[in-house]
C-alpha cells in the first residue's frame, strides 16, 4: 500500500528503512486490524523511531506499542555475524528523545506506547506484553535476533506477523532464524521485500491467497461465482486454442499440406510467367 507522502517526509530523518519496507509494515498493520488478530505491536531495535511511527498509525484501542532499544549503538558481534558486521559495533546510536519526538510529530500519544531502554538481556526480563500480534525485529545480530524470537514468538497467536528487517543483509540474522525454526520445528512460509526484509504469518501454510488480497474488501458471493465462471471459460478457450494449434501443426507436417504448398507456388510461378 502507498504511504501518505507527508507521513513519509516526517519519518525519513528518523529511519534507515527503505520506502518499500515501510509500506510493507503499513500493509501488515492493516492486515492485522482487518483480520482482527489480537495482541500488541512490538519493535526490537527502535533506533530513532521512524518505523515505530508507521506502526503507531495502526494501533487500535486494544493495542499498545512496545519499543526496545539499547540506545547505545549496536552490540558486540559473534563469528556467526560475519566479518563485515564488526565494523558496525557501537554505531547507529539514537536516543529515547528521538523516538518520542517522531511519535509526537505523527500524533501518537505517550499513553499508547512504552519505551524499554537497555540491552535485550535485561529489558526482556521485565514486564512483557501479554500477547503480540506484530513483532518487528530490527536487531541485526545472531544473538539479538535469536533472543527476540525466543522471547516474543511464544506470545503470538496464529495469524500474528514476524518481520525480520535484516534477513537478507546480515548473516547472523538469517542464521538465528534458521536455528530458531530448527529448535521449534517451525516451517514458516517466508515472504521477501526488497533485498533485506523477510516476514511470515504464524500458522500460515500456503500463499494461495496473497497477503494483499486479505486486505481488500471481500468479494460478494454473486461476483465470486461470476469470476469463477469466467475463469473456467477462459481455461476452456485456452485449451481449445491449444488443440487447434496442434491440429494446424499436424496439417503443416502432412504430405497433403506439402503438395498443396507446392501446387500454390507453381500456380504463382505460372501466373507470373504469363505477365
Question: What features would you describe in this structure?
Answer:
This protein has a 7-stranded mixed sheet with strand order 3-2-1-4-5-7-6, with helices on both faces. The protein folds into 2 domains: 5-214, Vaccinia Virus protein VP39 (Rossmann fold), CATH 3.40.50.150; 221-274. The termini are far apart. The model has no long low-confidence stretch (mean pLDDT 88). It is elongated. The chain contains 10 helices and 7 strands. With 275 residues, it is of the alpha/beta class.
Q: Any key phrases for this structure?
A:
alpha/beta, Rossmann fold, 12% strand
Structural class: alpha/beta
List the uncertain runs.
none
* Domain unit count: 2
- Averaging pLDDT over every residue, what do you get? 88
Q: What is the CATH homology-level superfamily of the largest domain?
A: Vaccinia Virus protein VP39
Number of helices: 10
What percentage of residues falls in helices of 4 or more residues?
40-55%
First-residue to last-residue Cα separation: 68 Å
Topology order in helix (H) and strand (E) letters = HHEHEHEHEHEHEEHHH
Gyration radius (Cα, Å) is 28 Å
**Order of strands across the main sheet:** 3-2-1-4-5-7-6
CATH fold-level topology of the largest domain: Rossmann fold
Q: What's a quick, concise take on this entry?
A:
Helix content is 45%, strand content 12%.
